[in-house]
Amino acid sequence: MERSWKEAIKRVLREFDLPLHYTEISEQILSRGYYETDGATPAATVNAQLATSIKYDGEQSPFMRVGKGVFALKSATQTTPILARKSKETVLASSSPDIESTDSIVRSFGMYWQRDLVVWRNAPKLFGKQQATSKPIDFGKQKGIYILYDHHTVVYVGRSIDRPLGKRLSEHTADRLGGRWNRFSWFGLLEATDDGGLEEAPFNNSLASVIATLEALLIEALEPPQNRRRGDDFAIEYIQDIDPELREREIQNTLRSIEQKMRGGS
User: Does position 88 have pLDDT exceeding 50, yes or no?
Assistant: First the structure.
């Protein structure tokens, strides 16, 4: 295991020997056990580590930015085929020491989450993780838009503004849509923090960035077959995590089942 995020990042980029998106770098660090963290936003931490090194270490930084959210080791960029296909102007522009940030109004999202992994009550908790080993975040108080599905068929599109996402979805378990959906996707405007909370994010968006966000959101939500790419770089996707209360129920049910079998066999 490495002693710091920076050393772990260098190890992953050295082993892959090609530019990687910061989300992929963080996934590889945690899955390979190169560094441990109890933070909820490891991808954002990796992004900040890279951007800070490029900005403040200058020529001494081992990293360079070669695209939107994509980084490489300087020593590896001379022979990387991906960079060879880029124009000289693109590479020079991408190596400037600006902090990597998003212009998107959407800050996080979840796709095709399962209804039966949530304990539905007046203010339910919607747990999600950046990666399998990350600390879970409760997105129940998220604000934005959501989509309800019957498997993969869209049945309803709504918004959560005055009432947070968890409450809006809870209402749909008891209204006219109650029996018509079993999955949901959501696109949130609140920023997820490393301690597992949510906070308001500043909006300084141009018309172009708003349009780009809408395009990326629609690509993610509709998955049109003629689009050759996903809606990349407009937000970080979170994978659903089962509510701890449901996990505890499953454990108790398993224990009772084992106990009954033992009694029946005695």
Answer: no
CA pair distance 23, 27, nearest whole angstrom:
6
Residue-level pLDDT at 265? 65
**43-46 contact pairs (CB < 8 A, 24+):** 43/130, 43/131, 43/236, 44/130, 44/192, 44/194, 44/236, 45/5, 45/194, 46/5, 46/9, 46/22
Full-model pTM = 0.76
Place of tokens 């009694």: 263
Q: Which H or E run contains 27? A: helix 22-31
Nearest residue to 47 via CA among 9, 96, 86, 93: 9
Under the banding of pLDDT at 50, 70 and 90, the label for residue 228 is low
> Which residue type occupies 227?
N
Angle between helices 22-31 and 42-57 (to 10 degrees): 120
Mean pLDDT of 25-50: 92
Q: How far apart are the C-alpha atoms of 259 and 188, rounded to whole Å?
A: 44
What percentage of the chain's residues is helix, strand, coil (to nearest 5)? 40, 20, 40
What's the residue count for the chain? Answer: 266
CA atoms within 13 A on the CB side of 160: 26
pLDDT at 95: 37
